[in-house]
Write a structure and sequence with these properties.
Chain B: This is Carbon-monoxide dehydrogenase medium subunit. The complex is a heterodimer of chains A (166) and B (308). Helices cover 38% and strands 15% of the residues of chain A. Chain A is of the alpha+beta class and 166 residues long. Chain A folds into two domains: 86 residues, Beta-grasp domain (Ubiquitin-like (UB roll)); 71 residues, Orthogonal Bundle (DNA polymerase, domain 1). Chain A has a five-stranded mixed sheet with strand order 2-1-5-3-4, with helices on both faces. In chain A, a hairpin with a 2-residue loop joins strand 1 and strand 2. Chain A starts with a helix and ends with a helix. Chain B is of the alpha+beta class. Chain B is built from 15 helices and twelve strands. In chain B, the strands form three sheets. In chain B, strands 4-5-8-6-7 form a five-stranded antiparallel sheet. Chain B has a four-stranded antiparallel sheet with strand order 9-10-11-12, with helices on both faces. In chain B, 45% of the residues are buried. The N terminus of chain B is likely disordered. Classes of the chains: A alpha+beta (166), B alpha+beta (308). The structure holds flavin-adenine dinucleotide (FAD) and FE2/S2 (inorganic) cluster (2 copies). The site of one FE2/S2 (inorganic) cluster has 12 residues of chain A, from loops. The site of one FE2/S2 (inorganic) cluster has 10 residues of chain A, from loops.
């Protein structure tokens, strides 16, 4: 057995980049990213709901791609760049957020940070997705208020806005 | 809201073996106090729902060398067990040569979960939705038994799944290319003339309440080839769903070889699936519902293969 495989201390120093800033968080290797973001870093824009990957409220970007922070464990985030909803709006409202506001893409707003994170992950890698690609990218985000109509309009507007801004 | 399993339990130690042998030894030493972890997405749902307790030791398989890539091997495509479901879903060679695997993965969870979950975890769970599609291409698995790497068909692996030690470690999946995809020179010419007269077909269906989120009621795949006269040259029928370990219906496959697809044969297919497919009942669907669904799906796909 190598030295490396023996490293299984109960404490773990998670080194990663969160919203552009290098962080070292003293935690345990199996701690959930969601807990670290909300309780350690107090970035409460990321929401907690189902705890098992089914609702999308806890969505963050890992290396630019949407993942559920309730499923990711600390050791799986080592060396990674994580972006939360606070990171997306660091320089003011992101055009995606603006589109959600203008198109009525939310009501209670609980699902909204997760929705915006998923849309951001999609449009950064695929600026003009098809209807099917949008549906697939948002298939892990549940909204219990809007009926999705406003959300779909918001995504369409965000796509147009980003095209015009180029 | 799900119970937060972390609130009530001590945090497990996480081990990061670099080789299959190290992982296997760790599992041997810790026994039932430990579990292998790939993406951890299925385990998390089991821990949070109380189906399984969080063990004292997690053996993270992601650092084992060579398991995180997809490459072309001598006889087919080799997919490392640590490759994410999403990387498989979007891989151009899988899309082109193994389309029902792509389709099965498109219908498995949401992309955000597929980025964490792995193909190895999906297979090792014995109930993953990728299984009927992989069986449709006669996939092989390579696994480690504590001494050596062993290769076996996925179909055989699933048959003995219940008897294998929990230390068994899934390393790779191999998807054989069709004969016409590996041949060269004059062999290709000969084969092309045969192939131009045969029709390949494949289909995958997942029937469930909400495709991205719930275990399926039935997952079914059928693939093979037909002659010009609609005789079955080659066929694989695989069924899974719910908590049932996916299986090929090899007896029925043998019965169909050389037969012409007509109404009588489809009736036979339907009746035999009702006899041979042994799904499990749960809160969501009865055995007879699952059987009828599977029989309709396979019979209608065979009809399409012959008539469209
Ligand atoms: C919201 C949600 C929706 C889901 N929807 C689907 C779905 O539609 N279809 C579906 O099939 N699954 C679904 N799943 C389950 C799961 O995400 C997938 O099955 C996934 O492929 C599991 O892979 P993993 O790497 O996360 O496995 P893990 O959770 O790490 O492991 C799963 C099991 O396999 C064992 N294991 C893992 N790797 C190996 C290995 N290499 N050798 C031996 N044993 C191993 C583990 O010990 C564990 O028992 C869903 C999960 C969630 C959270
Ligand atoms: S809290 Fe993570 S998906 Fe629901
Ligand atoms: S706006 Fe209330 S859940 Fe989506």
């Amino acid at each position: 057995m190598t030295e490396h495989s023996k490293q299984a201390e109960s404490t773990f120093a998670l080194r990663c980049v969160i919203n552009g800033e290098a962080q070292t968080i003293e935690t345990t290797a199996s701690a959930r990213l969601l807990t670290l973001i909300r309780d350690e870093l107090e970035l409460t824009g990321t929401k907690r709901s189902c705890d098992i990957g089914r609702c999308g409220a806890c969505m963050v970007l890992m290396e630019g791609e949407a993942v559920n922070s309730c499923l990711a464990m600390a050791y799986q985030c080592a060396g990674k760049s994580i972006t939360t909803i606070e990171g997306i709006s660091k320089g003011g409202f992101d055009p995606i957020q603006q589109a959600f506001l203008e198109e009525g893409g939310f009501q209670c707003g609980y699902c909204t940070p997760g929705m915006i994170v998923s849309v951001k992950g999609l449009l950064d890698s695929n600026p003009s997705p098809s209807e099917d690609e949008i549906a697939e990218a948002l298939s892990g985000n549940i909204c219990r208020c809007t009926g999705y109509g406003g959300i779909r309009r918001a995504v369409t507007r965000a796509i147009e806005g980003r095209m015009l801004a180029k | 809201m799900g119970m937060n399993a972390q609130g009530s339990m001590a945090f497990p130690q996480v081990w990061h073996p670099q080789t299959a042998a190290e992982a296997w030894h760790l599992k041997q030493s810790f026994g039932t106090d430990s579990v292998y972890v790939s993406g951890g997405t299925l385990l998390r749902t089991q821990w949070e729902s109380g189906v399984a307790a969080i063990p004292k030791h997690l053996i993270d398989l992601s650092a084992i060398r060579g398991l995180g890539e997809i490459r072309i091997g001598e006889t087919g495509l080799v997919i490392g067990g640590q490759v994410s479901l999403e990387a498989c879903r979007t891989h151009p060679i899988i899309q082109r040569h193994f389309p029902i695997v792509t389709e099965a993965l498109r219908q498995t969870a949401a992309p955000s979960i597929r980025r964490l979950g792995t193909i190895g975890g999906n297979i090792a769970s014995n109930i993953g939705d990728s299984l009927p599609a992989l069986l449709g291409y006669n996939a092989h698995v390579v696994w480690y038994n504590g001494m050596e790497d062993l290769q076996i068909t996925l179909s055989e692996w699933l048959k003995i799944a219940g008897m294998l030690h929990t230390e068994r470690l899934l390393l790779q999946i191999q998807l054989p290319f069709q004969a016409d995809e590996t041949l060269e020179g004059h062999e290709v010419e000969h084969l092309r003339s045969v192939i131009s007269k045969t029709k390949r077909f494949s289909a995958y269906h997942k029937v469930g309440r909400r495709e991205a989120f719930t275990p399926s009621v039935v997952t079914a795949s059928v693939s093979g080839s037909l002659s010009e006269k609609k005789e079955v040259n080659e066929i694989r029928i695989a069924l899974g769903g719910g908590q049932m370990i996916a299986q090929r219906l090899e007896e029925l496959e043998r019965e169909l070889l050389g037969k012409v697809i007509d109404v009588q044969l489809l009736r036979h297919v339907y009746n035999r699936i009702m006899q041979l497919y042994k799904p499990r009942e749960d809160l969501f669907a009865s055995v007879s519902y699952r059987k009828t669904t599977a029989a309709h799906l396979i019979a209608s796909e065979l009809w399409k293969a012959a008539h469209q």
